[in-house]
Every structure is written in C-alpha cells, then in structure tokens.
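Worked example (supplementary).
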Amino acid sequence: MPRPEQNFISFEIDGREVRAPEGMSLVDAAKNGDVEIPVFCYEPKLGQAVGACRMCLVEIEGSPQLEIACKTPVEDGMVVVTTSDSVKQAQNAIVEFLLINHPLDCPVCDKGGECPLQDITFGWGPGRSRFIEPKRHFEKPLELSPLIAIDRERCILCYRCVRFSGEVAEDYQLVFLERADSTYVGTHQGHPYVAPFSGNIIDLCPVGALTSNAYRFRARPWDVENGGSVCTLCPSQCNVTFTVRDDAKVLRVFARDNAKVDDGWLCDRGRFGFQAVHAPERITRPMLREGGALHEVSWERALSEAAGGLERAGAGTAALVGGETTNEEGFLLQRLMREGLGSPHLDSRPGGALDPEQARALGRPELAAMVPDIDYADAVVVVDTDLQDESPILDLRVRKAIRRFAVKVVLVGGRPGALDPPADAIVRTTPDGGEAALGALAAALAEVEPVSVPPSDRRVPRDPAQTPTGGLDERQHGEPERQGESAGRERVDDLARRAGTSAEAVRNAAAALRAAGPTVVLWGERLSDGPRGRQGVAALLALARALEIPETEGSGLIEIPSGTNARGLREAGCLPGLGPGLLDAPQAGRPAAEIAAGLGEDLSALVLLNADPLRTHPDRAGWKRALEATTFVVAFADFESETVAEHADVVFPAESYAEREGTVTHADGRLQRVRQSIAHPGEVRPVWSVLAELGARLGAPADPPFLTSPMVTRAITEAVPFLAGLTLEELSGKGKRWQERDAAEAAPEAPSLPQADELEEPPEPVAPSNGDLRLGTTRSLWAGRETEHAPILRFLAPHQRVELSPQDGRALGVESGDEVEVSRNGSSVRGIAALRDALPPRSVYLIEGTAQDSATELLDGESTTVTVRRVEAE
Amino acid sequence: MTPDPGAAETMSDISSNALSDDVIAVQRGPTPTRSKAVYRAFGATLRSLRTTLARTLEKPTTIQYPEQKTPVYPRFRGRHKLHRFEESGLEKCVGCSLCVAACPAECIRVVAAENTPEHQVSAGERYAAVYEINMSRCIFCGYCELACPFDAITMGNDYELSDYTRSDLIFTKEMLLAEPIERTPLRREGE
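After joint prediction of all chains, the assembly is encoded as:
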C-alpha cells in the first residue's frame, strides 16, 4: 500500500479554526486546536474506532443528534461544539453511568493517580451519583495469568483489551463473556491468558481492571520517577520507560511510543524481564579465582590481575562480545584488543564469520529498510527467522501490515511459525535450505514476467540524487532473453530441490513478489551462519537485486540478528576482519569458532564481554574444551553462568540495561540512547570505564582520557566515517537512523550485488540415513537469562522441545509429550516431543539457548543429522 | 530646637556634600550633669522595685516543665497516630500513599504490600508494609490526616519528640500504631 498522502483541511471546533489531515478522527484532530475530547475506548493503535464507551459525544452542526467523535472523520468546513449544554449533559450522564458499577476503591487500586477514569470523572463528570442500589460484584482479586491481575468490578467494558487480543496480537484469547450487565472479560474456559504480548493490555486498560502482578501495590505515581531508555533484551530495541523508586529500584517497564521502532507495544519479556536487574544472585562485586574458587576482591585487585593476565597473553588474547553490549563498550574493547594487546581476534557473532565485503554490502544505505517501511511495502519476505521469538515487535508490525494495509507476506524457512496462517506464500525448506531457496526465488523472479504490468512501472524509483551509486549496477530492463528461459526453469527446479522444497512453492512466492512494488526482506542471522554463510548472504543479495531493492524507494533488508546490538557492534568494529566503520582492520582476526579452536594452542587468554559461549555459541563441547584449555579468562557478567562459575579467572560485574549509559544501533540503522535509570547496585562500575581503564593500563590510553560515556561516543563518531558529527542530542527521544544523515554518504563502498545466475551451486541436501533426521534450531522468546532470573517470568522458562513431523513421529514411535533423546556423535540432549503437522518430514527442530539441554550441544557449525530416540519411562 | 554648634558644623560639612538630602542629623538631648544622672538611676531602680515587690504576692505563671506540662487544645496537632479497627484489630491504613502525596514536607514514606488470607493486616486488599514518618522534617500541618480516606492517621497531642539522633526521629509503623503514653494533658472545657 502506498504511503497515504495527507490532505489538510480546516474545520471549526469551539469557535476556533483548526487545520487537520482529512479523514483524521475528530478526537485527534481536536487536539490540533487544543481541545480535549474525553475518551475511554478510542486508541488509534488498536485500529478502527469502535465507539464502545460513548464518552466522546460532541455536537456537529447539521447533525440532529450528538455524534461520537472517535468514529467521525474530520471534514472540510465541519463545525463542532464540545462545550454546549447538551454535550455537557451527555458527558455527565456517561460518567455517572460508568460509575454505577465501578467500585470506587481508588485508595487500594494500582491505577489510582494515573487513571483515565479518575481524570475524566474529575474533568467531565457530574460530581455526584444518584445511584444507591447495590453494585455488581465479582470475585476479586483474580489472576488472569501469573503476570496480570484482573478486577472485573472495576471494568467499564471499553473493549480495548479484547480488541488488542483479537486485532493486534491476534491470539484471540480474550473475549467478552455473558451479556448485558453480566458481561465480563475473560478467556475461554478460564485458561490463563499467557501470550507473548499479553502485558500490553495493562497499559491499555483505562481503569484498574487489568494490573501488573509485578507492580501490584509497589508504588503510586507520586512515589516514583519515570526514565526513558531502550530495552536491550532483544533486537527489537523497543523504546521503554523505567518506573524507578528511590533512585535504586526499577518497579515497572512500560512502552514509550515510537512509531518508527515499536509502535508503542512491548513483549512480555521486555515488560517483566526487568526483575532480573534486582535478582539477589546478581554479581555486584568483582571476583577473582583463588584456589579454584571465585572470591570477591577489591576493584583495584581485580583490575591489576586482569591487566597483568592480559598483558602476559598479549597478542594471544581473544575476545567474544555479547549482543547486549553497547556501541561504546564494543568500541573500547576492540580498541583495547587491537591497539593495546595487538590481537585482532574478536567476534560479536556466535554463528560464524561474515565476509567483510558482504558486511559492507549489507551496510549500504540503499539496501536498508526502516521499520515503518513494512507498513507501506507491497510485500514482506521473512527468511529463516521466526519473528515472534526472535524480534517479537516486528511480528506485530508484520501482522499490522497484513491486516491494515493488505501487505503480501512470503515466508522462507524450514520451521512453521506464528506468521504461517496469514502468509500468502510459504517456501518450506530443509533446516539449512535457506541459501538454495533464496537462489531459487531470485532465479524464479528472473523468469518470464507477466505481460500485463511490468514491475518496474509499479515501483517508485528512489530519488536519483539520493541514491548513492555504491558500485551497484543498473539493472537491465527490457525483453527477457528467450533462449535462457528453459535453462532458467531447470535452474529453479534444481535449486528448489536442493532447498528441499517444491519448485511450485518457489514460483508461487515469486509470483506474489513479482507483482509487488516495494518489498522488505526480514532475514534471520541464521542464514549467514555456518560454513555456507557466505553463500547464504550472496543468495540474499542476489534476491535483493532481483527484487530491485537498491532502486526502489521503501524497499530494503532488515536483519534479525541473534544479538541485540549486532549492527552497532559490527559498525563499531567488533568483527574479526572489520575495524570501526566497516573498514578493513589492519590485521584479519579469527571468528568465534576458530577462536575456540585456537584457545589452548596459540591463544591463551579470553575476554568475555557479556558473552556466554557455553550457552549461546554452537559446538558447546568444543567451547568447553577451549575454556578448559584457556589459561586466563576475564568475564564481564551479571550472573554466575556455567562459563563464569567454572572458567572465569577475573569477573567484573556487568551493568544491567537499566544502569547503562551508551548507544545501541537497531537493525535498520537507528542509533538510540540507552540511559541510566537507576544507581549501580553494590560495587558495579560502568563497563565502559572499566574497559577504558584496562585500555589505559595495557598500552591503549586515550588522549584525552575517557572520563564519560559521551566522550567514548564521540570517539566512535570520529572513527566511523558515516557517523561523523553525530551528537547525542540528535539521538535524544526517538533516535536517528544514520542513513538519514548527510554523513551517510561516507558509508563504505561495496561491490555490485551478485546476479541470481552467478551464485555458487548450493550443496545437495543432507540425506539422512537409518531414520536419522536433519537438525534445525530455533530460538525461543523465553530462553534467556531474564526468564530464569526474573521471579515472575520463571514459569515461562522453556524446557527443551523436540519438534517432529507426525510421519517421523509414527516411524519412531514417538507421540507428543513423550520424552525423547536427540543424539549425535556421542553428545545428546533430552526434550519433550511435539508433533507438528506443518513441519516437513525428516527434519527435527530444537531450541537454542535453553538453560539445560540446549540445542547448541549438538551443533558444530556443520549441517548435521541427528538420531531421535524415545526415552522409555522408568 | 537649635542644634549645637558642633552639630551645625557637621551639617554644613554634609550639606556641601551632594548626598546631603539623604542624611538625617541625629538630635540628642542635653548632656546630663553628674548629680542629675545619679538621681535618675536611683528613681528608676525604685520604680522597678515597686513592680517586683508588687508581684511577690501573686502566684507564679511559669510551670515546672517537665514535671508539669501545659495542657493542649483538643485540636492541637502533635505526634501522629495510626489506628486499628476496634472490633477486628486490623489496621485501618491500606497503604494508599495519599498522605505521601499530600505531605508538603515529604516526610512520609509508604511501601504497600498485599494481604493474604494467612497474613491479613488491614481490611482492604493492600496494607502498608512500611509506614514511616520523619519527625525531624514534619511540619505538623495535618494534611496527611485530611488526605486519609480511611481516617487511619490522625494527629495526636504529643509534642515531646526530641531525641539524640536524627535516625531515631524516623517513626516506624509500629511506633505510630502503639498506644502513645498519655503524657500530654488536654486542656479542659473553658480552661
């Protein structure tokens, strides 16, 4: 759907002439004239207004009765009155009516003090009630889920939560039960409302009917301060507000509306995961391994031990950078490694190396889409990622695009996901068939184009002045070559076979995309992992070329990385071959897998910056060996994970995201500020200052020394050409995409995108023998530290789940719910079997990063087959 | 009245100055002679002695504090009290924090918690797990009493609140709930 054009009209409200875009809801348009129309049910984020509460009644000239403003689009020359006696009488009546059954237990209610019902009663209510009959009663307090408390007596039946469940999250769990004055909100059969986005109904509820269990009775609005920041628990980087009491304790996290990032929604992990910040088991003091055990020591001792150990190892030091690391911390670490210790071996990607040329190609501004482009694209391609688990807010965004703007969605990947039902075309592959599938799709797009509408006419070309040439070839338009046609067909068939899918599925997807204009491709980092990662990215770039992404306004790629700040860390210089600004590092380093192989050989020390290789990196056994062979491990960690407890020699306490100060970069290039909201607990020091101190002691002192985090940010903007001149003021509030700044012209050049027929032949799909299955991995929204350390989320911590197709289940004698063992080369994990109809046969999917039995036990970077066996109950 | 020559001289000095309009010459009485001064002092002593002697027959107006205390009016705002329901013994305070919002001196801190059937502290769903008043900050304005929707906090009559350390002046919920030792007499009707 093209971006709607705004046509301004003028209308009159309460005697004032006001201008507003045509068709805007009168409630919103009135704000342009500083007129507030009270509402309960109206919320533009929920889609169409429903007019459930009748609070917004206004008088419109020419209409015989009062009209509801929320469902009235503003028109030119409209005359609206909100202050007449009849409007006042109606408002008084509605408030009195709503309060008939409202219990008025404000002193006990968590909403008290920030309650729209209180405010509107005070502002537009009659002040007294004539109702003396008994109010309706429900059982209370009740838990709607372990996260949310429901008080049905307080509910005014505004319909917001039910609309959210049905029209935004699309989980259809909340409904109105019963009718008339017995109506109440509930779930079918009283099941708990557990869903990835359930917490949003707490923010939506205009009364205290839905309240957060985590915030229950914790504080009042006047007891707390709210501080804006960015949630760094997943790559969505939603804008959040921390509610802080006594400058020390985060009590609540709620959304800070930013339409360009999160649309004002939050997932439950982001909303409730903050409790991990105050977990008693958190590391808050530096520790040192003495006599085999970790002991708390002073900062000076820990710093000198760390500096001494790293100095001894010198160029034999390697570093792993975790995804939550800010740009500043990553920049300082690469500086410490490259300039201080002379070691180029640091990696922020767990899955494998990214080719420097490809990293630059992926970083080009003309290949970058921004999040709102999803709304206005004609088609969205989702490759090798399950958005709901890996970047939940983008899942809501894609759903919104489908629902409101009829965007076509094409899914490419092996595992059926939450977006399957509304998708227009699905290319179901083998677990690592992404590369072949993209190649097939790119080749299919080059097949005969439909005669009716040439796609180039449907696409709005980018402004030529703004399109940097970037070495990208102009695509040759014109008649498709007739001779190459049959060869192309064979190629599509062959590639589809290699991807483990049917050529028909690929052609269907190509047909959906060919007719489309601007296209956004959301691709999972998984595509670029492993030994064929380079070819995977090449196929992606070929698809981008086939879709004319560089030339089309509103088209682009968005990566769904495994780490929150993957893009920022890449641009700050935390890849083995790339220094700051995606420029070639003076010396090429080793990626994570090779670091593991080299530890104990020529590498002797390891720095772990918010990284936990035993949990997140493939080949757990290999990392275990590597960590045991490492002489000296320095870890920045917030919890005593296995890596820390058993292998770290010096442990520096890491900051939580509520204590950090720095910047992170969204996958679409938006730099955002992470702001400190609470004081550091215990003896925690800012990580940037520790890294700067280590740098100063190890031969990389800064001049002038880094005294504040903004000084480090400044050093980044000086080192990275395309961030030149960036100031923190520019980033305040909603952040800024670097592609939109003038300095973006300095983005490094990349070679031209590969043609679909230039791609390397993908390998034949692994043929599993003796009933073995192909192993695929997936991530779970709930497999993370926050789930385990936030008391309220602990019930969601996933056990390993082994997903099989029903055919394989039958062949193996496994049914849903059985305990099964998945083994390969002597290592094995156990999990609960789940048979899924949509899963292609001969594949099995396991979750990465669970606390126990993580799929990373079985991965070693190669595509693998595994043996699945039912565990007999003892 | 004629200013003495010395003063006139000073005046003329000043009048030559541009600021002369702002200067007021202090006018003094004649310098008393020695005998007059002695007479005056003696007279004044006698006059005051008369007042003193006249009062020796009256009852003293001072009271012997702390053995004796001034009675206060019933609406005197002294140390706060938290109340319980008489029948059930449950606390009236539900920890709503409205007193915190009303307090102009920001001397009240409330942290609420949830009642459970096993641990029922107040009558509502929530209770005040922490209720502290910093008496060294309190200005005894009584707004907390006015704000309280449950009459859980009232201003008592005690004014003897001094202590040796500041931290001892933070009154906890237990201290505020405890029946105060009635040390302050109330002023009787018509007193």
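Two points are worth noting when inspecting this output. Chain B has two domains: 5-55, 80-177. The radius of gyration of chain B is 31 Å.
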